[in-house]
Design a protein that fits this description.
Elements (H helix, E strand, L loop, with lengths): L8 E5 L16 E3 L7 E2 L3 E5 L2 E4 L11 E9 L6 E4 L1 E2 L9 E6 L4 E7 L14 E4 L16 E7 L6 E6 L14 E7 L15
Antiparallel strand pairs: 1-10, 2-9, 3-8, 4-5, 4-6, 6-7, 6-9, 10-14, 11-12, 11-13, 13-14
Length: 203
Protein backbone atom coordinates (compact mmCIF):
# COMPACT_ATOMS: atom_id res chain seq x y z
CA UNK A 1 0.00 0.00 0.00
CA UNK A 2 1.27 3.50 -0.84
CA UNK A 3 0.50 5.73 2.11
CA UNK A 4 0.29 9.49 1.88
CA UNK A 5 -0.13 10.24 5.54
CA UNK A 6 -0.61 13.79 6.78
CA UNK A 7 -0.19 13.24 10.52
CA UNK A 8 -2.68 14.35 13.15
CA UNK A 9 -5.05 17.10 11.98
CA UNK A 10 -7.26 18.65 14.70
CA UNK A 11 -11.01 18.48 14.04
CA UNK A 12 -12.73 19.52 17.28
CA UNK A 13 -12.40 19.42 21.05
CA UNK A 14 -14.28 16.72 22.87
CA UNK A 15 -14.80 19.08 25.80
CA UNK A 16 -16.16 21.89 23.62
CA UNK A 17 -14.55 25.22 22.86
CA UNK A 18 -12.28 26.27 20.04
CA UNK A 19 -9.18 24.43 18.89
CA UNK A 20 -6.11 26.20 20.21
CA UNK A 21 -2.42 25.42 20.55
CA UNK A 22 -0.29 25.78 23.68
CA UNK A 23 -2.99 25.47 26.33
CA UNK A 24 -0.60 23.95 28.89
CA UNK A 25 2.56 26.06 28.64
CA UNK A 26 3.76 29.47 29.75
CA UNK A 27 4.03 32.57 27.59
CA UNK A 28 7.25 31.31 26.03
CA UNK A 29 5.44 28.35 24.49
CA UNK A 30 6.99 24.94 24.13
CA UNK A 31 10.70 25.25 23.37
CA UNK A 32 12.87 23.37 20.90
CA UNK A 33 16.64 23.37 21.26
CA UNK A 34 18.34 26.13 19.23
CA UNK A 35 19.79 23.40 17.02
CA UNK A 36 16.80 21.27 16.08
CA UNK A 37 17.57 17.67 17.19
CA UNK A 38 15.45 16.14 14.41
CA UNK A 39 12.98 17.13 11.73
CA UNK A 40 9.57 18.41 12.84
CA UNK A 41 6.47 18.35 10.62
CA UNK A 42 2.92 19.57 11.12
CA UNK A 43 0.98 16.69 12.68
CA UNK A 44 3.91 14.93 14.37
CA UNK A 45 3.41 13.43 17.83
CA UNK A 46 5.52 15.34 20.37
CA UNK A 47 6.74 14.91 23.92
CA UNK A 48 9.14 16.67 26.30
CA UNK A 49 12.72 15.72 27.14
CA UNK A 50 14.45 17.83 29.77
CA UNK A 51 11.74 20.44 29.24
CA UNK A 52 12.33 20.71 25.49
CA UNK A 53 10.00 19.55 22.72
CA UNK A 54 10.98 16.46 20.73
CA UNK A 55 9.06 14.21 18.37
CA UNK A 56 8.07 10.74 19.58
CA UNK A 57 7.39 8.44 16.64
CA UNK A 58 10.44 6.21 16.52
CA UNK A 59 8.49 3.13 17.59
CA UNK A 60 4.99 1.80 17.03
CA UNK A 61 4.00 2.75 20.57
CA UNK A 62 4.92 6.32 21.39
CA UNK A 63 5.47 7.11 25.05
CA UNK A 64 3.65 9.81 26.99
CA UNK A 65 2.98 12.63 24.52
CA UNK A 66 1.76 16.22 24.87
CA UNK A 67 0.03 16.59 21.52
CA UNK A 68 0.57 17.25 17.82
CA UNK A 69 3.09 19.73 16.41
CA UNK A 70 1.59 22.68 14.50
CA UNK A 71 4.58 24.91 13.77
CA UNK A 72 7.26 27.12 15.30
CA UNK A 73 8.67 30.61 15.23
CA UNK A 74 12.32 31.53 15.58
CA UNK A 75 14.96 34.09 14.72
CA UNK A 76 17.00 32.97 11.71
CA UNK A 77 20.64 32.60 12.73
CA UNK A 78 21.94 34.00 9.44
CA UNK A 79 19.54 36.79 8.47
CA UNK A 80 18.13 37.75 11.84
CA UNK A 81 14.62 37.53 10.37
CA UNK A 82 11.75 36.29 12.52
CA UNK A 83 10.17 33.30 10.81
CA UNK A 84 7.15 31.08 11.34
CA UNK A 85 7.38 27.60 9.84
CA UNK A 86 5.18 24.50 9.81
CA UNK A 87 8.18 22.20 9.51
CA UNK A 88 11.78 22.36 10.70
CA UNK A 89 14.62 20.54 9.01
CA UNK A 90 16.86 18.51 11.29
CA UNK A 91 19.88 20.47 12.58
CA UNK A 92 18.38 23.87 11.67
CA UNK A 93 20.20 26.46 13.79
CA UNK A 94 18.31 29.40 15.33
CA UNK A 95 19.67 32.35 17.30
CA UNK A 96 17.83 31.05 20.35
CA UNK A 97 15.39 28.27 21.16
CA UNK A 98 12.44 27.81 18.80
CA UNK A 99 8.98 28.65 20.16
CA UNK A 100 6.79 25.72 19.16
CA UNK A 101 3.02 25.50 18.88
CA UNK A 102 1.40 22.21 19.83
CA UNK A 103 -2.24 21.10 19.81
CA UNK A 104 -2.01 19.98 23.41
CA UNK A 105 -5.60 19.72 24.66
CA UNK A 106 -5.98 16.10 25.86
CA UNK A 107 -9.59 16.13 24.64
CA UNK A 108 -8.69 17.23 21.11
CA UNK A 109 -10.05 14.91 18.43
CA UNK A 110 -7.85 14.47 15.38
CA UNK A 111 -8.19 13.12 11.88
CA UNK A 112 -5.44 10.77 10.72
CA UNK A 113 -4.98 8.27 7.91
CA UNK A 114 -5.28 4.59 8.79
CA UNK A 115 -3.26 2.24 6.59
CA UNK A 116 -6.00 -0.46 6.44
CA UNK A 117 -3.33 -2.97 5.40
CA UNK A 118 -3.83 -6.52 6.69
CA UNK A 119 -6.75 -5.92 9.04
CA UNK A 120 -9.19 -3.14 8.20
CA UNK A 121 -10.83 -1.06 10.91
CA UNK A 122 -14.61 -1.20 11.08
CA UNK A 123 -17.40 0.14 13.28
CA UNK A 124 -17.18 -2.79 15.71
CA UNK A 125 -13.69 -1.65 16.75
CA UNK A 126 -14.66 1.86 17.92
CA UNK A 127 -13.26 2.45 21.42
CA UNK A 128 -10.19 0.28 20.94
CA UNK A 129 -6.63 1.55 20.72
CA UNK A 130 -4.10 1.74 17.89
CA UNK A 131 -0.38 1.89 17.39
CA UNK A 132 1.30 4.04 14.76
CA UNK A 133 3.52 3.08 11.85
CA UNK A 134 6.94 3.89 13.28
CA UNK A 135 9.38 6.46 11.92
CA UNK A 136 7.26 8.24 9.29
CA UNK A 137 8.78 10.59 6.73
CA UNK A 138 7.29 14.07 6.47
CA UNK A 139 6.89 16.12 3.29
CA UNK A 140 9.09 19.13 2.58
CA UNK A 141 6.47 20.19 0.00
CA UNK A 142 3.32 20.17 2.14
CA UNK A 143 5.21 20.46 5.46
CA UNK A 144 2.94 17.74 6.86
CA UNK A 145 3.88 14.66 8.84
CA UNK A 146 3.83 11.23 7.26
CA UNK A 147 2.35 9.75 10.44
CA UNK A 148 -0.36 7.10 9.93
CA UNK A 149 -2.28 4.77 12.22
CA UNK A 150 -1.57 1.03 12.00
CA UNK A 151 -5.00 -0.53 11.53
CA UNK A 152 -3.91 -4.11 12.15
CA UNK A 153 -2.77 -3.29 15.69
CA UNK A 154 -6.24 -2.35 17.02
CA UNK A 155 -6.61 -3.86 20.47
CA UNK A 156 -7.59 -3.10 24.05
CA UNK A 157 -3.94 -2.51 25.03
CA UNK A 158 -3.83 0.36 27.51
CA UNK A 159 -0.52 1.88 26.42
CA UNK A 160 -1.25 2.24 22.70
CA UNK A 161 -0.98 5.93 21.71
CA UNK A 162 -4.25 6.45 19.81
CA UNK A 163 -7.87 5.74 20.72
CA UNK A 164 -10.14 4.96 17.75
CA UNK A 165 -13.35 7.03 17.57
CA UNK A 166 -14.66 6.17 14.11
CA UNK A 167 -14.52 6.85 10.39
CA UNK A 168 -13.71 10.35 9.14
CA UNK A 169 -14.56 9.66 5.51
CA UNK A 170 -16.23 12.88 4.40
CA UNK A 171 -18.89 11.45 2.11
CA UNK A 172 -20.82 9.12 4.37
CA UNK A 173 -18.60 8.01 7.23
CA UNK A 174 -18.14 4.64 5.57
CA UNK A 175 -15.36 2.14 6.18
CA UNK A 176 -12.94 0.88 3.56
CA UNK A 177 -11.85 -2.70 3.08
CA UNK A 178 -8.30 -3.93 3.62
CA UNK A 179 -6.02 -2.52 0.94
CA UNK A 180 -7.58 0.96 0.80
CA UNK A 181 -6.46 3.68 3.21
CA UNK A 182 -9.09 5.52 5.23
CA UNK A 183 -9.38 8.73 7.23
CA UNK A 184 -10.34 8.08 10.84
CA UNK A 185 -10.98 10.08 14.02
CA UNK A 186 -8.78 9.47 17.06
CA UNK A 187 -7.95 10.90 20.45
CA UNK A 188 -4.43 10.75 21.90
CA UNK A 189 -4.59 7.99 24.49
CA UNK A 190 -1.29 8.39 26.38
CA UNK A 191 -1.44 12.15 26.95
CA UNK A 192 0.68 13.90 29.58
CA UNK A 193 -2.01 16.47 30.35
CA UNK A 194 -4.72 13.80 30.36
CA UNK A 195 -4.22 10.16 31.31
CA UNK A 196 -0.54 9.44 30.70
CA UNK A 197 -0.98 5.69 31.20
CA UNK A 198 -3.80 5.59 28.66
CA UNK A 199 -7.26 4.08 28.74
CA UNK A 200 -7.89 0.40 28.17
CA UNK A 201 -9.87 -0.19 24.99
CA UNK A 202 -13.20 -1.97 24.82
CA UNK A 203 -13.43 -5.75 24.49
Amino acid sequence: IIMAGYGLAPVKNGDGGSIRANNFCDGNGYRIAATAPSAYFEGDLCTLTNGLLVTDMGSATAGTVIGAFYGAEYVDNSSGDVKFVRSIAASTVAKAQFKAYVYDNPYCIFKIQADQDTTALDATMVGNNLQIVASPSGSTTTFKSGLVADSSTQNTTQGFPLQFIGSAEVTDGSYTAAGTTMDILVKINTHLWGNAAGNTGLT
